[in-house]
Amino acid sequence: MRLQGKVVFLSDADSPSGRAILVRLSEEGASLLLISDSNGADIAEELELCRARGTSALVDRVDLCDGDQIGRLLDRTERTLGPVDVLVHNRSLVLPTSVESCDERTFDESLNVNAKSAFIASQAIGARMAARGAGTIIFVGSIHAEKPTGSAFAYSAAKGAVQMLSREASLALGRHGINVNHIQMGPVRGDDAVFRSDISTLYEDYEYKVPSTELATYRDLASLIVYLSGDEAKHLNGADIRLDGGFLNHYLDIKMNMPSSGGESS
Q: b/e for 225-247, b at 16 or more Cβ within 10 A?
């Protein structure tokens, strides 16, 4: 098991990505510190599976924009599981917003959930990693750090901030033996509804804009996180890894890999 002996802090265990990630980390022997807004209720099935496997898991609910709360949680965790070796920040909130009409409250909410929490968590946990001279930080971002959605500009702005946070942190924390990397997550099933737009056709027939016509799953994301958390990725630092199946390289309607009437792709 590639992560035996490592303690992983997962910032949003309740989300679809979080549930897939925590199960995959458990399979690889990691101990888990799970931030759960439901205090474990929404991940009861996954927790039962992990604990039956022998996984040590702590579940807590904290404000990730409050460094003092995170610090107290880390103190408790170190007394039971040990220090955090890996931070996985996977918080994600998509709110319909346009530049013309977005109100300040909605903009602040998007930045707090998607970006401020990433900064505060990485600062608090990164300081302890730096004191030990080792650690891994993984930000789960989005292709929309670079590609506009046409429907959720505040989300794009926040994910763009996370991408640059990752690059800056890789320079600063990398000097203390900490690897910091950023995953640009591409489309998954259901994103055509999440990013429905009146001005962009990006998500129309979106599965056929992936050259293989196969959308990524959160299990794919979880497997990449396992790799980045392990010793095999020790020389990977400051990277933006696009997990989109080639979506952004081929997103126009022209010559999509659509099924033909005879069952063959064009």
A: bbebbbeebeeebebeebbbbeb
To the nearest 10 degrees (0 to 180), the angle between helices 44-52 and 16-27 is 0
The C-alpha atoms of residue 109 and residue 124 are separated, in whole angstroms, by 21
Model confidence over 121-152: pLDDT tens digits? 999 999 999 999 999 999 999 999 999 999 99
DSSP state of 163: H
Is pLDDT at 197 greater than 90 in this prediction?
A: yes
Question: Which tokens belong to 32?
Answer: 């888990």
pLDDT in tens, 162-195: 999 999 999 999 999 999 999 999 999 999 999 9
Please answer whether residues 174 and 167 qualify as being in contact, where contact means their C-beta atoms are separated by less than 8 angstroms. no
DSSP for 59-112? EE---TT-HHHHHHHHHHHHHHT-S--EEEE-------B-TTT--HHHHHHHHI
**Domains of the chain, each with CATH number or no CATH:** 7-249 (3.40.50.720)
